[in-house]
Design brief:
59 residues, mainly alpha, 0% strand, rod-shaped
């Protein structure tokens, strides 16, 4: 019986560790994707602003 309890305790710890690693990795990837999306939106905004400025200069 003691061995059976030890097996469940060990597997439980490994499951918690796997869940923590999965959640950490997912959070890091989401943060990276959000950062890249923010930078892309900023670049697009800069592009539109420069395009409007170009159009104003060449009317």
């Amino acid at each position: 019986m003691s061995e059976l309890i030890d097996i469940f305790i060990t597997r439980g710890d490994l499951a918690h560790l796997a869940l923590f690693l999965w959640a950490s990795t997912t959070t890091a990837l989401a943060w990276f994707a959000f950062r890249e999306l923010t930078l892309a939106a900023r670049r697009f905004d800069d592009f539109v602003r420069e395009l409007a400025r170009f159009n104003e200069l060449h009317r």
